[in-house]
Structures are given as structure tokens and as C-alpha cells.
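Page 47, continued from p. 46.
Same chain as before, 135 aa.
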Amino acid sequence: MRRRSEAGFLEEGKLLFFALAVSLLGTAALLVLSKTFSPEEISLNELSFDDVGKLVSVQGAVSKISFRNGNVFITLCSRDCLNAVVFSNLAKNMKGIDLERIRTGQFIRFAGALREYNGELEIVAAGTDSVEILR
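Result:
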């Protein structure tokens, strides 16, 4: 009887060690992946067509904002300008921000996927936390 309980304890110890090791490896993998998918901070003036497809974060002054069919279109400017889009499925669920309160002249941070649209660069919101009013 005693041998079975010792063997059972040994097996439980191995199982506990295995579970701990897998948990630590999973946590490490999540940390690496979260850095991989974080938007790259980049200046509006430094963006190029070579950056198309990247997840980027830019800052700029709002020079124009419009709303059509639930979609939000923002023109951000520094020296250069860039169109930014929040599609309706995200616009209605934005975290901590009411997009209708954004005004021209405000500085915002916008994170999203950079793409080419009609021969121009455009950034499309990547999530419900893609827009932040800076001032």
C-alpha cells in the first residue's frame, strides 16, 4: 500500500513540474508575441510605401474628420498628411473615447495597419483602442 502512495506522489510531482514548465513556456511565448504584434512607433513624415502591411502607430494633428455610414475618416498631419480610417464595426465599440468629440487641431495617436488605397498611404484602425487623444 505504501509503495502505491509513494508512486502516486511521485507521479503527481512529475505532473506538477510538467504543468509549471508548460505554464512558464506559455507565458514567455505570449511576451514574445505581444512585442511582435505591437505597433511600430513611426513619424508621419517617415512613412513610405515600404511600410505597407506593417502595424504602425503615428501621431499628428487632426486637420479633417468626417463620418459616413458609421465609418470615421480622419486626416492626420505633421509636415506630411495621412488618412486614417475607423470602420463602423470598431467605431461603435471604441474604448475610452467618443470619436465624435475629436476636433480639428487636436493631437491624436492612431494605431493600425498601413495600406495603400487609391495610390495613397492610409492607416486602418487595428482595434478598439487604436485612437488616443493626446491634447
